[in-house]
Amino acid sequence: MINNLVLLQAAGADYSGIIMIVALILVFYFMMIRPQQKKQKEIRKFRESLKKGDNIITAGGIYGKIKEIKDDSFLISVSDNTVLRIDKGSVYPSAADAQQQTENTKKDA
């Protein structure tokens, strides 16, 4: 009788462990992986929507205006005689801030 009870408890513990692992994986997916995928999708969509003449900010904090678009890079004009080639991966969706700042600078001048 006691042996049967011990076997039943051991069998129940295996299922609860598996259930806990599956629950933990689901929590990680919905709390960490899925939001990150959404964020990456938004950033990708933003980068694809950029066009010539848009103001941008690079990951390094460089403000510029897109002069030319290549397959995997941008040519940006930083000042009158300075043009930089940057990777598309270094541009983030804070370009709206760059445009606002450029407009504010033009208004103040």
The main β sheet shows up as: 4 strands, antiparallel
Class by helix and strand content? alpha+beta
Q: What is the domain total for the residues? A: 2
Order of helices and strands: HEEEEH
Q: Mean pLDDT, nearest integer?
A: 80
Q: Give the DSSP E fraction (strand runs of 2 or more residues).
A: 15-25%
- By DSSP, the count of extended strands is 4
Question: Rounded to an integer, what's the Rg over CA atoms?
Answer: 26 Å
| Helical run tally | 2
CATH topology of the largest domain: SH3 type barrels
Would you state the CATH class of the largest domain? Answer: Mainly Beta
Task: Give, in spatial order, the strands making up the sheet with the most strands.
Answer: 1-2-3-4
Given as residue ranges, the uncertain stretches (5+ residues, pLDDT < 50) are none
Q: What is the approximate shape?
A: elongated
Q: In percent, how helical is the residue content?
A: 55-70%
Give the CATH architecture of the largest domain. Roll
* Ends distance: 91 Å
